C-alpha cells in the first residue's frame, strides 16, 4: 500500500488523532534530523516508530542497544531522531509521540541519489543582495542536530560556488553582479571519530542598488598634518552619500569627538543635498594644538544604512624646525657654491660666453642688431716696432677666418674704401660703420698705417669705440716706450690679444672672438680647422 494512503488510513485504523505528515528531503550519504514537536518536559520519553517497517519501535531498539543499531546509523536524543548517514533503506514514514499519548506527529522522509538534480532544486534556498552594499550568505539550519546533542560536535561550514572547486567566502563587503550564482554550503559534524556532512544550496541574486556608493573623498588614509605647536588647525573630512541616513563624524582613539565648540578639540557638521546626492563635511577643529594632540590618531567615519561603514585615520606631527647647525651648514654650502661658481666663471668665462653665442644664440647688450652698422669689425693696421708683425699672408688669414668661418662682416681698407677719398676721412668712415676696431701689427707698415692713428685717436676715444689690440710676442718683450704715444694710449683703452704666429692657436681665436661683438650673421662654415 502507498505511504500516503497508509498515512491517510492510520488515524481511522488506530483511532488516534493525527496531523498531516511533514515531508523531509535528504540525500544518500548525508546526515538528517527529525524533530518531534511535542511540548513536553525534557525528561519525558518520546516514542519513535518507523511505519514503513511495520511499526518498528525505534525507541526500544535504541534503548536496548540492539545489534541493528550499527546497521541503521540512527541515534535518539530527546525529541530528535538523528540519522547519521541516510540511505534508501531509511526512506519512509516515521511518527513520534509521548508514551501513551493519543496525539502523534508524522514525517515522510524521502532520500535522493547523491547526484539528483531534483534534490538540488527542492533543497535550494534563495537570497537577494544589492550592488555596492555589504552582503552575507547564511547556511540554512533546517534539520540539523541540536547544539546539545551528546557526542556530536559541529566542525564548521564550507562554501563552494557552483562551477568552482576552491572554497569561497560567504561575505561580500561590496557586492557586484558577478557575485550572483548558486552556492553550496556544507555543514560538518564529528561523531565517534567520524565526520558526517549536511549540504544545502543557496541561490544568490544580486540586484542593482537604488543607492550609489557612499565614500569619503578626503583626507586620504594615514595622512599626516604637520603643524606648529600652539597653532589652530582645521581638518575637513568630505564625503559623498546617497542616503539621507548616512552620516560622517570624527573619533579620537575610538571615542566620539564632541560638537561642543567651547572644547579645545571639537567638530562641526554641514551637508548640501542635490537631486540624489548629499555632500557632507565634518570639520575637526583644534583651537590650540598641544603635544597631547600629537600623540593621538583621529578617525573620520562614514556610517551608512545600505553599505559597510568606511574609515579614514589621520595623525598630527610637529613641523620640523631648522637647527642652528643646519643653518650654518646651509650657509657654508651657499658660500662655497658661490665661490665655485665665480672661480669656474673666471676660469671658463670665455668658453661659456662663446658657447652661449654659438649654441644658444645669446648676444651681449653691446651687440644690438638695431645699431645700423654695416660691419662687425674694421681691421686697421699699425706699424710693428719689431720685425714680428703680421705680413700680408697673415693678415689675409686673419680676415678670411673671421669672415668665412666665424661669420663676421669685416671692413678692409684696401678692399672696401673707394679710391680717391682722403685717408683720414676714409678711416673714420670705416670706424663709424663698424662695431669694433681691431688694431693689427704689420710689417712693413701698409696704408693707411700708423701715420693716421694720431689723427683719429681723439675720435676713437670720444666715440668709445670697442678696441681690440693685437700684439706679438716680440712686442710684449719690448718696452712700452718704444710705441708711439697715440698707440700707447689706444693699447691701454682696448683689450689685448697676442698673435703667436701662423697658424693661429685655438686660444688666440677664442680670445679674439670673446672681445669682438657677436657676429650679426650665421657663420658660412662650421668645420674649418683655423689653419688658414
How many structural domains are formed by the residues?
Answer: 4
| CATH class value of the largest domain | Alpha Beta
| Biggest β-sheet description | 6 strands, mixed
- Please give the count of helices: 13
Uncertain segments are 1-18
Distance between the terminal alpha carbons, to the nearest Å? 130 Å
User: Can you tell me the CATH superfamily of the largest domain?
Assistant: Toll/interleukin-1 receptor homology (TIR) domain
CATH architecture of the largest domain: 3-Layer(aba) Sandwich
What is the overall shape? rod-shaped
**Number of separate strands:** 29
- Alpha-beta classification: alpha/beta
Helix content: 25-40%
What fraction strand?
25-35%
- Rg (C-alpha, Å): 54 Å
Q: Roughly what is the average pLDDT, rounded to an integer?
A: 81
CATH topology of the largest domain: Rossmann fold
Structure description:
The chain is built from 13 helices and 29 strands. It is of the alpha/beta class and 532 residues long. The chain folds into 4 domains: 3-112, Immunoglobulin-like; 123-207, Immunoglobulins (Immunoglobulin-like, Sandwich); 215-318, Immunoglobulins (Immunoglobulin-like); 377-515, Rossmann fold, CATH 3.40.50.10140. The strands form 7 sheets. Strands 1, 2, 4, 5, 8 and 9 form a 6-stranded mixed sheet that branches. It has a 5-stranded mixed sheet with strand order 17-24-23-19-20, with no helix packed on it. Strands 26-25-27-28-29 form a 5-stranded parallel sheet, with helices on both faces. A hairpin with a 2-residue loop joins β14 and β15 (194-207). The protein starts with a helix and ends in a 17-residue tail after the last helix.
Amino acid at each position: 500500500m502507498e505511504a500516503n494512503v497508509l498515512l491517510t488510513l492510520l488515524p481511522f485504523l488506530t483511532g488516534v488523532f493525527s496531523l498531516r505528515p511533514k515531508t523531509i528531503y535528504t540525500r544518500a550519504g548525508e546526515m538528517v534530523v527529525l524533530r518531534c514537536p511535542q511540548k513536553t518536559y525534557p525528561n519525558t520519553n518520546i516514542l519513535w516508530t518507523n511505519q514503513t517497517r511495520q511499526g518498528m519501535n525505534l525507541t526500544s531498539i535504541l534503548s536496548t542497544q540492539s545489534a541493528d543499531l550499527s546497521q541503521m546509523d540512527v541515534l535518539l536524543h530527546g525529541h530528535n531522531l538523528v540519522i547519521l548517514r541516510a540511505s534508501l533503506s531509511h526512506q519512509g514514514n516515521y511518527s513520534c509521540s509521548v508514551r501513551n499519548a493519543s496525539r502523534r506527529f508524522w514525517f515522510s522522509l524521502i532520500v535522493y541519489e547523491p547526484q539528483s538534480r531534483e534534490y538540488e532544486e527542492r533543497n535550494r534556498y534563495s537570497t537577494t543582495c544589492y550592488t555596492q552594499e555589504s552582503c552575507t550568505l547564511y547556511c540554512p539550519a533546517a534539520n540539523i542536530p541540536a547544539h546539545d546533542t551528546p557526542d556530536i560536535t559541529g566542525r564548521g561550514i564550507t562554501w563552494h560556488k557552483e562551477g568552482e572547486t576552491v572554497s569561497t567566502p560567504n561575505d561580500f563587503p561590496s557586492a557586484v553582479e558577478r557575485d550572483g550564482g548558486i552556492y553550496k554550503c556544507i555543514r560538518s559534524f564529528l561523531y565517534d571519530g567520524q565526520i558526517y556532512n549536511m549540504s544545502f544550496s543557496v541561490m544568490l541574486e544580486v540586484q542593482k542598488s537604488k543607492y550609489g556608493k557612499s565614500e569619503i573623498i578626503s583626507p586620504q588614509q594615514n595622512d599626516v598634518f604637520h603643524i606648529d605647536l600652539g597653532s589652530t588647525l582645521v581638518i575637513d573630512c568630505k564625503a559623498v552619500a546617497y542616503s539621507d541616513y548616512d552620516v560622517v563624524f570624527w573619533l579620537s582613539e575610538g571615542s566620539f569627538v564632541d560638537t561642543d565648540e567651547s572644547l579645545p578639540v571639537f567638530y562641526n557638521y554641514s551637508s548640501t543635498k542635490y537631486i540624489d546626492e548629499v555632500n557632507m563635511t565634518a570639520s575637526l577643529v583644534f583651537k590650540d594644538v598641544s603635544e597631547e594632540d600629537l600623540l593621538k590618531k583621529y578617525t573620520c567615519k562614514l556610517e551608512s544604512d545600505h553599505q559597510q561603514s568606511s574609515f579614514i585615520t589621520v595623525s598630527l606631527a610637529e613641523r620640523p624646525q631648522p637647527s642652528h647647525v643646519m643653518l650654518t651648514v646651509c650657509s657654508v654650502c651657499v658660500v662655497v657654491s658661490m665661490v665655485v661658481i665665480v672661480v669656474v666663471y673666471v676660469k671658463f668665462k670665455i668658453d661659456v660666453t662663446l658657447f652661449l653665442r654659438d649654441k644658444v644664440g645669446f648676444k651681449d647688450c653691446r651687440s644690438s642688431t638695431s645699431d645700423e652698422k654695416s660691419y662687425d669689425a674694421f681691421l686697421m693696421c699699425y706699424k710693428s716696432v719689431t720685425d714680428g708683425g703680421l705680413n700680408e699672408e697673415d693678415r689675409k688669414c686673419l680676415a678670411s677666418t673671421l669672415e668665412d668661418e666665424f661669420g663676421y662682416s669685416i671692413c678692409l681698407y684696401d678692399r672696401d674704401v673707394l679710391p680717391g677719398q682722403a685717408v683720414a676721412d676714409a678711416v673714420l668712415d670705416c670706424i663709424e660703420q663698424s662695431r669694433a676696431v681691431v688694431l693689427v701689427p704689420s710689417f712693413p707698415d701698409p696704408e693707411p698705417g700708423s701715420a693716421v692713428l694720431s689723427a683719429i685717436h681723439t675720435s676713437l676715444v670720444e666715440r668709445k669705440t670697442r678696441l681690440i689690440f693685437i700684439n706679438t710676442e716680440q712686442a710684449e718683450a719690448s718696452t712700452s716706450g718704444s710705441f708711439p704715444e697715440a698707440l700707447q694710449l689706444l693699447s691701454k683703452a682696448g683689450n689685448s690679444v697676442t698673435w703667436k704666429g701662423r697658424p693661429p692657436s685655438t686660444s688666440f681665436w677664442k680670445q679674439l672672438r670673446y672681445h669682438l661683438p657677436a657676429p650679426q650673421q650665421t657663420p658660412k662654415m662650421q668645420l674649418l680647422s683655423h689653419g688658414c
